[in-house]
Design a protein that fits this description.
The structure is a homodimer. Chain A is about 25% helix and about 30% strand. By secondary structure, chain A is of the alpha/beta class. Chain A has one domain: Stationary-phase Survival Protein Sure Homolog, Chain: A. In chain A, the strands form 3 sheets. Chain A has a 9-stranded mixed sheet, sandwiched between helices. Chain A has a two-stranded antiparallel ribbon with strand order 9-12. The first copy, chain A, has a two-stranded antiparallel ribbon with strand order 10-11. In chain A, strand 6, helix 4 and strand 7 (about 170-175) form a beta-alpha-beta unit. Mean pLDDT of chain A is about 95; it is low at about 265-270. At the A-B interface, helix 2, helix 3, helix 4, strand 8 and strand 11 of A face helix 2, helix 3, helix 4, strand 8 and strand 11 of B.
Amino acid sequence: MTKLRKLILISNDDGYQARGLHSLIGMVRKYGDIVVVAPDSGRSGASMSISSSTPVRNKLIKEEKGSDAEGSLTIWSCSGTPDDCVKMAFENLCPRTPDLVLGGINHGDNCAVNAHYSGTVSIAFEACIKQVPAIAFSSGYTSADADFSGMTPWVEKLVEHALTKGLPKGICLNVNCGAYDEFKGIKICRMGMGDWKEEWQKSIHPHGWEYYWIAGYYAPTDGNDEATDTWAFKNQYVAVTPLQLDLTAYEAMKELEKDFSPTPSFQDGE
Amino acid sequence: MTKLRKLILISNDDGYQARGLHSLIGMVRKYGDIVVVAPDSGRSGASMSISSSTPVRNKLIKEEKGSDAEGSLTIWSCSGTPDDCVKMAFENLCPRTPDLVLGGINHGDNCAVNAHYSGTVSIAFEACIKQVPAIAFSSGYTSADADFSGMTPWVEKLVEHALTKGLPKGICLNVNCGAYDEFKGIKICRMGMGDWKEEWQKSIHPHGWEYYWIAGYYAPTDGNDEATDTWAFKNQYVAVTPLQLDLTAYEAMKELEKDFSPTPSFQDGE
């Protein structure tokens, strides 16, 4: 490699030691230089939270030079949230603006509305804000020593696409692979809908007071709809859901404008 | 009031003692019974994070009976995130499913892409998941003793609308009022775009190691576009941005389907 290699930034929400992260590094290292900035421990359910009232610290974990066959690899751990990691990487830890940002591979899926809670998906959204193509990868395998190698050809296909063609501005990909070792193919999906049931499990502290663990089960409302990521994920497809940074409910605007805007008392004065 | 009063759930991300929360309670108490479940301290920038690995505890702060003139008021503090507060309220602390969920009033705006980071907005999104109408209120006033009374007629207008007409399924309102005491009217907006600059401020710990505070300034890329909440907020309108729970980038699906799906090797077998 003599020309400037592509730069890929990777983060996750399971922490810099997670197997899913290192599997992903292995799958994409051939495409360029890799900078990893990942939380110092698990941050599941971090959503797009930022450390607004606590200081954030980074530690250099590994620094490997590149070769003809593969790019360099630099790994930082960061005491902040997944979103902090991306912000930190862009401003302080990447040698230049990354060509691609990847989240994952998450131990556990981020299908459907659960993308909202996901630290893995937040990595892709933060990259959207910074106008860099991004993909969040999650797996139905949840154990710490899970084997994610069945995802390899699909991760390669999607990463190659993003590195060569890019992605539309303001749009990232949320990729979910079920707990399978082979997949039928890629399916472009819409986000499934649903809610959690029995969300809190009550326990009693030794001192007698009540506390709760978040728990429960996810109940999809449209899980049999083949258009959803929920369905594709369960049916051995690589579920690829394009997500948009712009949350505006454009279709609702007209009706609301009729009801509210401009308010009559000010119409004349405008 | 002899008939069953409306039930309004209120949370925020500035904590149960915040003035913005108590201003909002004062503005809407005439509409029904109020249950507040709010974080025990500030949770700015919490986004839709949930306490996936720490237990959550609630404390009853206040319990006032209703009268002919106004509904009852129950206030709980919760050790979790704003999103946890909503989940906790629905499952354990509300006497019935709320008719309306409100977030705020936040000390500080949540315009544009910053809605993604907002704990206040997360309250409305969690209510969307639970299919209950919801509004997030934020103000340009940031000080702890800010006077939010200029928002009163607009909060009333929006709350009355949501209680009588409801809101479309899967859609909540993100309402931002600038640091003014009077407003020109309601403006239905789209979410503005932009990014933060100089996001990290480096400091040195007494022991010599570096750490960072998140800081910087927000730089809109479309702040002069009158369609954005960024513009409306700055120009003395009540900026009302309808946000949708469904993040799917529908317009990008067709192009991605051409590139990816169904993958040729499996086309025949399906």
